[in-house]
Amino acid sequence: GQQLNQSPQSMFIQEGEDVSMNCTSSSIFNTWLWYKQDPGEGPVLLIALYKAGELTSNGRLTAQFGITRKDSFLNISASIPSDVGIYFCAGLLRGIQGAQKLVFGQGTRLTINP
Amino acid sequence: KAGVTQTPRYLIKTRGQQVTLSCSPISGHRSVSWYQQTPGQGLQFLFEYFSETQRNKGNFPGRFSGRQFSNSRSEMNVSTLELGDSALYLCASRRESSGNTIYFGEGSWLTVV
Questions:
Q1: CA-atom Rg of chain A in angstroms
Q2: B58-78 pLDDT, tens digit each
Q3: What is the rounded distance in angstroms from the CA atom of residue A6 to the CA atom of residue A68?
Q4: Does any CB of chain A come closer than 8 Å to the CB of residue B96?
Q5: Residue of B48, B56, B108 to mutate for A, most A C-beta atoms under 10 A
Q6: Is B92 in contact with B105 (CB distance < 8 Å)?
Q7: Which of A100, A10, A110, A44 is nearest to B100 (CA)?
Q8: Between these two residues, B92 and A40, which has the higher pLDDT value?
Q9: How confident is the model at residue B99, as a pLDDT?
Q10: Phi/psi at A83 (nearest 5 deg)?
């Protein structure tokens, strides 16, 4: 199925470091969403981006909607142990009569060494 | 405000059986969609329901079906289960308005043996 190209696939960092991950696509999206998923749980929404070029922050998280609408990045500053998990980008596709579906990246697994 | 609620959380079924999963969306959310998550394929869209009508469908065989009730609660059914159907099934809900966002439940873990 259609997927976004998310990188890196995994990251091993020290506590306190900054983290950056991104997603690219050959398709244009009108909305980008970033989710975090902990083991055995569903994805939790972190940030939603609605306009090309939009830069949005949520605490230590910052995300941007690429100007071409084909990419997005997520930055985490000063990482802490609870940031461990899998991060997913998702692009929202709109169809006829209001239909919508999310297309997901493959995920970035973040591991933090204390 | 309660989030998206899915039941059951865990279940084990045998090949050939069928399974029904349930989802209660966030209050006020009328759109419900379902996703399958597996290690190999990642998160894949199954279908979306709005006002008791299927509005969008992913590339899954006809064994996968769903429905939505007048109170926006939704169920999905998988018939004639195969080993490859083992996955985390996620339900998501959203409010019908511009700029809306999509919220997920904790998922139902299905193991087919």
A1: 14
A2: 999 999 999 999 999 999 999
A3: 16
A4: yes
A5: B56
A6: yes
A7: A100
A8: B92
A9: 60
A10: -80, -10
